[in-house]
Protein: Translation factor GUF1 homolog, mitochondrial
Amino acid sequence: MGSMYRASKTLKSSKQAFTVFFNSLKSNRRDPICIGLYQAYGFSSDSRQSSREPTIDLTQFPSEKIRNFSIIAHIDHGKSTLADRLMELTGTIKKGHGQPQYLDKLQVERERGITVKAQTATMFYENKVKDEEASGFLLNLIDTPGHVDFSYEVSRSLSACQGALLVVDAAQGVQAQTVANFYLAFESNLTIVPVINKIDQPTADPDRVKAQLKSMFDLSPDDVLLVSAKTGLGLEYVLPAVIERIPPPPGISDSPLRMLLFDSFFNEYKGVICYVSVVDGMLSKGDKVSFAASGMRTTKEARIGDTIYRTKTTVEPLPGFKPVRHMVFSGVYPADGSGFEALSHALEKLTCNDASVSVAKETSTALGMGFRCGFLGLLHMDVFHQRLEQEYGTQVISTIPTVPYTFEYSDGSKLKVQNPASLPSNPKYRVIASWEPTVIATIILPSEYVGAVINLCADRRGQQLEYTFIDAQRVFLKYQLPLREIVVDFYDELKSVTSGYASFDYEDAEYQTSDLVKLDILLNGQAVDALATIVHKQKAYRVGKELVEKLKSYIERQMFEVMIQASIGSKIIARDTISAMRKNVLAKCYGGDITRKKKLLEKQKEGKKRMKRVGSVDIPHEAFQQILKVS
Ligand SMILES: Nc1nc2c(ncn2[C@@H]2O[C@H](COP(=O)(O)OP(=O)(O)OP(=O)(O)O)[C@@H](O)[C@H]2O)c(=O)[nH]1
Structure:
């Protein structure tokens, strides 16, 4: 049995998709666990930290007065803006609070204009049906990310809901993530309320979108709500539809307490804050609870999907979540070498808020001690690095991302490879087979671009599975593609050959055999483990040549000649050299201004900290980042 925690708030109604504070029973615990009632009250930039007392007594809401729902959509179709309007409408946030996309709280979300974390808000709403007396409802809303890399966030959020608003842009119509999110919600047995948004746009064509929703998902045109989250048009019908169409939570209040831990984050002042969904039973202030799967002694053990129950009762644990399948692996190393401990702490805290990242220690001769992390995609990896830097001040160097491969040798042994450096360059036994992961990709695009996209998929070793017309102008394509071919720049290429009009989504599929080789990069004859990569044999020469060229452009001239080579086993397939020269940072510094000279030398010293020395060659931080783009 795990450690016990005591509830500091009362939650009566069952299956509430929000949270309650627990106080750790031992006050001197280093990592207290806090299960926090999140209210979108207060108008601070991060209302989670203000943790104000709710102004309404939650216990007055029986199950039938509660609705738990998510907002799901393709990227940029207006989920966060709609969430803003609903929160304003219910008085949860002030109108014109000055910060659009209120629930996009992370700096990375504001800078990139995308949602990467699902966010929860609780709203109170007085529903008035014709002449009947108004009746109060408690609505728990979860705003979810749109990008394919974050669909794990969506599926977890849906587990705490009974319904979803499926938002579709009135001009763009159904896109790839609309399809993916519809099926996630449908397979979770949620009630789907279709909402066509952005009807204020001059190019809006709601009738065409209604027809698409009917033909693709069998959603009746009569059930579709037409709104503009920007102007507020039609918004008054959204919450009544939520109340009328989405069923109340089905939990049994007098059963033993079971709560599902569906999200968590680390708060500097309170420790780990867990988001729970009360599936069955009732929780009262002062109740003691335990965690089924983990002992919960450290932040690492706030395990998403765990069941929380009343201490000393016996309950069947909830099914939890499907394990995450990591698509991309990359080494993460402290940029200044000395920061391993700091990086370790930052990773622990950040993975508490992003449980979909896997972390394992590894060592590189070039980069020292670091971690091998598994991500759901390249954007996910990028966002994770940015969050490490912005939220924890940790600068990292990441190695070339790789997908997980399997190799079989002539002695019958098999090797699973998440780090190309761990694959022997000159193995004792011959490789007799190798396998790579594939995905099933869905692409929706205007018909005039079909030819270009078919060529692109053929170049990426894709196999066509489906080609259908959604309506007169739009085509739906399905391809099986090697994961490796899509993780780096496929989406950029797709956007460029379709002038930005294609949308793309994928789900993982089985492994397939493939002719793979390890490509080593050598500096003055010494292999740099952090730059090793695994590529398809046909592409090895092209990639090798590009990597050598890229490295040459990033490594500054040194006091001696630097030879850069790319090799497969002992065969060199590309090479170049950087001639010797000492970089004189004072070269442009005419005259004798000593303070300016000192400043320049200081700056050079600072820059050196972010260099990695491989043998005798300094490789700047930026070179590692740029090389990602080639491979
Ligand atoms: N014209 C118009 N623009 C809108 C409307 N709703 C949202 N937008 C704009 O569409 C863009 C995307 O809106 P968001 O709310 O961030 O979309 P999202 O679906 O949350 O995006 P992700 O979280 O990144 O998937 C923003 O520039 C909004 O201002 C609308 O009803 N009309």
